[in-house]
Design goal:
Layout lengths: L13 H11 L3 H14 L3 H18 L4 H11 L2 H11 L5 H5 L20 H17 L4 H9 L3
Helix pairs in contact: 1-2, 2-3, 3-4, 3-5, 4-5
Length: 153
């Protein structure tokens, strides 16, 4: 919480990270319960529908169904927009983490497509300055530290 952004925010929840990491590894069995939990805890009906659709995608893929067939079936079970989001998100699983999580540090603010949304660069820079200031204020003598460590022998 030092940065002003809590890692408890929805984007960085353990369930969300677990779901998308498992999905990126094509471990559908591990991803499915994470998406179920995400759907159960989501307040936004569109996001809840997306997570339910993603859970079903994982269940069907786990059972060995072809991706195109899964996406076609999802459009008949769930709302078309949710099924389309799942199709887009699962088109290239190797890049899903880059698409679903904002970078913690981004050195090119001028050309950033996020336009300040989900950007943690300023907060991370602010944290670095706070840490540097504390390190200056609480500078520990290396000699004193060495003597303290040697006293434990």
């Amino acid at each position: 919480q030092l940065t002003g952004i809590s890692l408890e925010d929805a984007e960085w929840s353990n369930e969300r990270i677990g779901a998308f990491v498992a999905l990126s590894l094509k471990d559908y069995q591990a991803a499915e319960p994470h998406f179920r939990e995400l759907a159960a805890s989501e307040n936004d009906p569109d996001e809840r529908m997306y997570y339910l659709c993603m859970r079903e995608f994982c269940r069907l893929k786990k059972d060995g169904m072809d991706t195109d067939a899964v996406c076609t079936l999802l459009k008949t079970i769930y709302r078309k927009d949710a099924a389309e989001r799942v199709r887009e998100d699962t088109a290239d699983l190797s890049a899903i983490l880059v698409r679903k999580f904002s970078p913690l540090l981004c050195p090119d603010c001028q050309n950033c497509g996020r336009n300040g949304k989900s950007c943690m660069h300023k907060q991370a820079t602010k944290l670095n300055f706070k840490i540097a200031a504390q390190m200056k204020a609480e500078n520990v003598s290396q000699q004193a530290l060495l003597e303290l460590l040697q006293s434990y022998d």
